[in-house]
Glycosyl transferase family 8 (Megasphaera cerevisiae DSM 20462), 372 residues
Amino acid sequence: MRKIDNLYELEKLDKSRYVDELYPAFDNVKEAIVFESSSFFVPYQDVVLKSLVEHTNEDEFYDIVILTNEIDAYDCNLLQMEIAGRKNISLRFFDPTSYVKKYVEKSRYKYLTINYFRMALPWIFKKYDRVLNLGADIVIEKDVMELLHCPMKHNEYIAGAIDLGYLGRLKMDISPDELGLCNPDGYVNADVLVFNNVNIRRDFTMDNIMALWQKYYFRCAEQDALNMLFDGHIHHIDLRWNLFPPRMASVEHISHNTINKIELWKKSMQDPYIIHYAAYPKPWDYPLVGFGDCWWKYARTSPYYEEILRRLTVNSVRGELGINRLWIQKIGDRFVKIVPRSSRAREVIKRIYAAFFTPPNKEWGEKFAKKR
């Protein structure tokens, strides 16, 4: 075993598991399954991988790539253990920061770097014809190759499921004219998308795509941008491939849809292919969310199970403290106010205060946590 002379080496980000360039992992297979992830989401990413592997077909080849610039080699190794012994499954890690760096630096409006990764997928995966892009807040209950191989026309750029939460908000707090779409009711969710790289690269450049960040500030970041870019050229897939479960904040938005769309949502719940815990709460924060048992079925076998439980416990305590406003918090409110602004002491106190009294999510707290 190599001796570590400097203990600070342990704090450095080890990217030894990352690949330097992306080429198809299997001969004659130019399709990939892609995630954008972070070090924080690793435990939840592991749950998704477990569900994906559970529903693979031995006659298909699965080229899985996680785009990231911060997952350490230790976690990469644990994630790759999920495919150990599977000759038809490859899992790799790639840092595409260099592809988007100039766009991030020049952007008029600031978004997360991983938002840029998704916008640049056709060029990051320049050797691929198609990619299936998935979020980390899902579980998969069907072979995703069926989705990756969905038929797309010559003039279609992406394939996705309509976003019933967004469509409901068009009748609540979002103007149907906000994005200038020819068909706002065709708006799709971006956490389950098939990118037809061939068609996109044929008709767009990466500069074309990224120019949108300079012109508009999008409420839903890359999701809005992709819907605007490919408006009228989107292939709509079965809602079962991106099902929002009940007992979530998104249900209120879904309830403002037409009766037909609500009935479609209810019917899709009978046999979901991908369960997407969009909005709040997430199953790792609130296990009783709809289809939460499906998520925890995979989580219980994860090497991150104890960490998931630790976070659940910490967030639950923070939520209760933040919502009930205990007497010690009221004292803290006053104490913070009397410390001079811009002082180092005030910043230290604010950080300690936030660690104990900030609810994990305001919307989650209002709708699902216990109230006084």
Remarks:
- The longest strand covers residues 188-196.
- The radius of gyration is 22 Å.
- The CA atoms of residues 69 and 95 lie 5 Å apart.
- DSSP finds 17 helices and nine strands in the chain.
